[in-house]
From TrEMBL:
It holds the Pfam family His_Phos_2. InterPro entries: Acid_Pase_AS (IPR033379), His_Pase_clade-2 (IPR000560), His_PPase_superfam (IPR029033), Histidine_acid_phosphatase (IPR050645). Residues 1-19 form the signal peptide. Belongs to the histidine acid phosphatase family. This is 2-phosphoxylose phosphatase 1. Keywords: Hydrolase, Signal.
């Protein structure tokens, strides 16, 4: 009898194990996870990138007996944040929920101890980050502050820093990874946003044990001295037009986006799938129930009459034009005329004038929490939308409310494929009691995944990315050359945004959806190497190091992508077989590319697709009427 009981237990155990590998996972005698739930969870993992899913990959995976690490350059996107636009009930979202983590508690204690007698040293001195908070907001009126880093985002960046320390500290030496400014071995750049600054400090602490002396990057693109470029505005308008046409060509999806926006947003409808995605992530990434719409309120006659008068005035007095070419005095006069002649909403008008005046009053100090240049671009973009859509100056108020939000021109690409096989028609609902369901989220994300795949092949998007990323890649190459010639810096960090990495990825020639879909706390690492035996040759022959002696590799979110760079052909690369650092039974290939390839790329070949040889000429060709691209 006991033999039969043992046999039955064995069979049941084996059945349960097989069941876990099938479409429905058995987790209890009467509870199953459906395939839809699994798909929704995959969206959560890919888009939110929770800290427990961030693991080391092929960082530093080279033959260390043959190759010596000279230095690393790390680019990151900030961690999880609050939404960029005002949401209905958004102040109730649990963005401030603190994960249970000893690592997070240790960092918070470090910051508290450093601030015990005043401001921490990294925010006490003069400069753009003076008096910046080092931790996300707590106990504020809103639990989910617009665009602000969350405790979960802080933990993500601490986890990334741990990976960097584990992979590189012993190879470079802990003292060479210092970012405090006391040594010249480490350099840290960040944009003037709290979320990128706080992300940098968290990464610095977990990778080096200390804080970072941050240098300001004056643009989300980290363009340094190569920022002014009129072609960027032209290309952005082309991409924006393509985005609208693409969504319009899928009316069912467009209707879904409109429905979702009515549920999500407080002040206006966004017919923009990317903006809706960002709002949905505020719920998905913080484990909040998906929202339902409140009953719609009918517009009063006064508002309808006002909108008609605005359209009538625009048709008579304001023909369509490029607002970027209009001087600010003309804009002010037109705004005054609207207020005086059409009885326009004076509060809105005052806010618009306040923003315009602030941008052009050089005596006033730029706001502390965001880049003034990006604020100007946001303002001009929304003013252009006013001219295009006759929606009045209400959009300028949105800029006023979202001053800490990432500036974002919508992206688009060719419509050469379709996503319909992944799309599921949402069930029609009464608009007064419409609730967002998981099926709606999966449909919207399926559309966006298809859209991203088009974007990486879009000629306008790739050219815009080349222009945006030129200054950053030029700075990366300069630091690589310093690592070769001066043996410093050893550790360079750029704490940026999804748009930073998207432009860089396309400029480097990466074309995969998995690359372009930037998660929170994404990381890209450039590793610079030389052969170990060259040390003796330099010592005894007095020969100086040259570029041909050095190689580099690129690791993106743990994946070696060196062999996929447009300027690193496989026949020139060094191919190595390495053992996985976790499972020593796994062996895989990694690559090293000659460093002279990226030097030649940035100096000789970068603007080949523009048929010019330098940044200035590339930026000017779109202003040339003979140019028909």
């Amino acid at each position: 009898m006991s033999v039969w009981i043992f046999f039955l237990i064995t069979v049941v155990y084996k059945y349960i194990s097989v069941g876990e590998e099938t479409g429905a996972v058995k987790i209890a005698p009467s509870e199953y996870i459906s395939k839809a739930d699994i798909k929704f969870k995959n969206i959560y993992i890919k888009a939110c990138n929770p800290a427990d899913s961030i693991v080391r990959g092929s960082e530093a995976a080279v033959d260390s007996d043959t190759w010596l690490l000279q230095g690393i350059l790390v680019l990151t996107r900030h961690g999880d944040r609050g939404p960029l636009n005002h949401l209905k009930g958004g102040d109730k979202l649990p963005c401030d929920t603190e994960p249970i983590s000893g690592l997070l508690r240790s960092y918070e204690e470090f910051v508290m101890n450093a601030s015990a007698t005043g401001r921490a040293w990294w925010v006490s001195g003069p400069g753009p980050f003076h008096n910046f908070p080092s931790l996300p907001p707590r106990g504020a009126a809103t639990k989910c502050a617009l665009g602000q880093l969350t405790p979960s985002g802080l933990l993500q960046m601490l986890t990334v820093g741990n990976i960097l320390r584990e992979a590189y500290s012993d190879k470079l030496g802990p003292e060479n990874m210092d970012l405090s400014g006391k040594r010249d071995s480490g350099v840290a750049y960040t944009t003037r946003y709290r979320r990128t600054f706080q992300s940098l400090q968290a990464l610095a602490w977990s990778s080096t044990g200390g804080a970072a002396l941050a240098r300001e990057a004056h643009s989300v693109a980290f363009c340094f001295r190569e920022c002014a470029c009129s072609a960027l505005h032209v290309l952005a308008r082309k991409i924006n037009s393509q985005l609208k046409n693409r969504l319009d060509s899928h009316p069912t999806m467009r209707d879904l986006i409109i429905k979702l926006s009515k549920v999500l947003f407080e002040s206006q409808e966004y017919i923009d799938a990317e903006v809706v995605r960002d709002a949905l992530l505020a719920y998905i990434c913080h484990d909040a129930p998906l929202p339902c719409i409140e009953k719609r309120k009918a517009y009063g006659k006064d508002k309808l009459s006002l909108n008609r008068r605005q359209r009538k005035y625009r048709g008579q007095h304001m023909p369509s034009r490029n607002l970027l070419e209009v001087d600010i005095d003309t804009l002010n006069m037109e705004l005054d005329y609207i207020n005086n002649q059409l009885d326009f909403n004076n509060e809105v008008g005052r806010k618009a004038r306040d923003i315009i005046g602030k941008l052009y009053d050089k005596d006033k100090r730029a706001p502390l929490d965001f880049d003034a240049q990006m604020e100007r671009e946001k303002l001009l973009y929304y003013q252009q939308r006013y001219l295009d859509n006759a929606e009045g100056y209400e959009d300028v108020v949105i800029v006023k409310k979202n001053l800490d939000a990432d500036f974002n021109f919508p992206n688009d690409a060719r419509m050469d494929t379709d996503f319909d096989e992944d799309y599921r028609e949402p069930t029609p609902e009464n608009i007064e009691d419409f609730c967002i369901q998981k099926e709606h989220v999966m449909s919207a994300f399926a559309y966006l995944e298809w859209s991203y795949k088009q974007e990486v092949r879009n000629l306008h998007n790739r050219r815009r990315s080349l222009l945006l990323a030129y200054g950053l890649i030029h700075n990366i190459v300069q630091n690589m050359i310093r690592m070769i010639s001066e043996n410093k810096p050893k550790y360079v960090v750029y704490s940026g945004h999804d748009k930073t990495l998207q432009a860089l990825i396309l400029a480097l020639g990466l074309t995969g959806y998995r690359h372009y879909n930037i998660q929170y706390a994404s990381r890209m690492v450039f590793e610079v190497y030389r052969k170990r035996d060259l040390r003796d040759e330099f010592k005894f022959t007095k020969r100086k190091a040259i570029a041909q002696d050095f190689y580099f590799r690129v690791v993106y979110n743990g994946e070696d992508v060196t062999n996929e760079l447009s300027f690193c052909s496989s026949r020139q690369n060094v191919v190595m077989k390495v053992v996985d650092h976790v499972d020593d039974t796994k062996i895989y290939e990694t690559y090293l590319c000659p460093i002279e390839n990226i030097v030649r790329f940035i100096h000789d070949d970068y603007f080949t697709s523009f048929n010019v040889t330098n940044f200035k000429d590339a930026c000017s060709i779109y202003g040339n009427p003979k140019h028909t691209i």
